[in-house]
């Protein structure tokens, strides 16, 4: 089980080498609908979100 801090650091390391088209952004807190609207205005293709207090379980 990996907690948020570990997930975030691992993801940032992996995406640091991903090249164009995908990037890691720092944690944001807020209303999901508002974040989504801003992403659309910026022309982003999508966002990925997860509850901060949840745990990661691989499929």
Could you describe the 3D structure shown?
It is a single chain. The protein is built from 2 helices and no strands. The protein has 59 residues and is mainly α. The longest helix has 12 residues, at 4-15. The mean pLDDT is 77.
Task: Please outline the helices and strands.
Layout: H1 4-15, H2 32-41
Overall pLDDT metric:
77
Q: Tell me the span between the first and last alpha carbons.
A: 12 Å
Sheet of most strands: none
Q: Uncertain regions: pLDDT < 50 for 5+ in a row?
A: none
What assembly state would you assign to the polypeptide chains in this entry? Answer: single chain
User: Secondary-structure element order, as H and E?
Assistant: HH
Radius of gyration: 13 Å
Short note summarizing the structure:
The chain has two helices and no strands.
């Amino acid at each position: 089980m990996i907690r948020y801090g570990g997930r975030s650091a691992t993801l940032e390391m992996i995406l640091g080498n991903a090249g164009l088209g995908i990037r890691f952004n720092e944690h944001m807190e807020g209303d999901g609908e508002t974040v989504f609207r801003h992403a659309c205005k910026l022309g982003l293709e999508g966002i990925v979100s997860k509850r901060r207090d949840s745990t990661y379980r691989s499929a």
